[in-house]
Design a protein that fits this description.
Blueprint (H helix, E strand, L loop, with lengths): L1 E5 L11 E5 L7 E4 L5 E3 H36 L1
Bound molecules: zinc ion.
Zinc ion binds next to loops.
């Protein structure tokens, strides 16, 4: 059975975020982009998702870390 899932991962081809996947999909199963029909292994799609998440999260995490470091250094300089 094929069902459509909505994921927060964007299709590397068209940026669509809905994929068709078999029931009980495994990491080595292929899922199909609903937008352009691009097929990708679930494991690869997950990896792309991790990369996409990093691009969003890292700049924000960096800011927080810089703030923390500044605070820490201020405390020591006094
Ligand atoms: Zn697509």
């Amino acid at each position: 059975m094929i069902k459509t899932i909505h994921v927060s991962i964007q299709c590397p081809e068209c940026g669509h975020t809905e994929f068709e996947q078999p029931d009980n999909v495994q990491d080595d199963d292929f899922v199909k982009c609903h937008g352009c029909g691009f097929q990708i292994m679930l494991a690869d799609l997950k990896e792309i998702g991790v990369e996409q998440a990093k691009e969003i999260v890292i700049p924000e995490a960096k800011k927080e870390i810089e703030k923390m470091l500044k605070k820490a250094f201020k405390g020591r300089l006094k």
